[in-house]
């Protein structure tokens, strides 16, 4: 069920996308469709249209629709991660456990509102189960490395991402549960805006790279400008949340930092395996993990921070 506030937010987002699409068409007319920068820009705008429409469709079906959406996102993210790091056939059953046991059970706990098991199932039971399953193959070659890869895959792609729909089931003081979708919108908008604004500030100002070996395109000016701009945006969104303006700014700053660090970690994994993107599923954005890498690290911190300080 979409509340009036959510409707207004999506109306504003669609207005921005319409303006961006018009600007993109004007630039294509001026510089030509074969210009690589313009082509990349229009591809990104088109991708944002699709992603926004999918998110709206999930929100229309409320908690169940949103949970199913992120279940599917986790499934695709798992597949991308597995495709990149999976090397040994003996790890097949560890992959099966991730896809067909850990993934559905974790999201069942989200739907069941069972916070106790939701919060420990993968960090405890999944952490212990995956190396046990791997050992059953009898293959000891690089065993610790292989087990750690599957554990990391489950933590990032399932556990971390499952915190996004889990926001809908919080019971916060003075904040009606029907408005919990606004908590989710606050986080996604802030973290994604930080990514976009870091790119824009980096292109506008330029300057030295912040971590050239991990992310060659990120600059110091882009990172600082993007995070501070997104923090200001978070403060402006305070009225749709249970946070004061200063609280919204502080939370926004923290999740922007976590999103930035998450992007660096995920870039390190890609660079270690010699690839630029996790996949090519989303035109202009790479794979699913390229789009949600910052959310993977921001969502758990945001969820537990909000639950600790505002939970009823």
Instruction: Determine the structural class based on helices, strands and strand pairing.
Output: mainly alpha
The oligomerization state is single chain
Name the average pLDDT.
Answer: 88
- What is the C-alpha radius of gyration, as a whole number of Å? 20 Å
Instruction: Give the number of helices.
Output: 10
**How many β-strand runs?**
0
- N-to-C series of helices and strands: HHHHHHHHHH
Weakly predicted, low-confidence segments: none
Outline the biggest β-sheet. Answer: none
From the N-terminal CA to the C-terminal CA, the straight-line distance is 23 Å
Q: Tell me the fraction of residues in β-strands, as a range.
A: under 5%
Helical content stands at over 70%
Shape: globular
Structure description:
The structure is a single chain. By secondary structure, this protein is an all-alpha fold. 76% of the residues lie in helices and 0% in strands. Helix 8 packs antiparallel against helix 9 and helix 9 runs antiparallel to helix 10. The longest helix is centred in the first third of the chain and has 28 residues. It is globular.
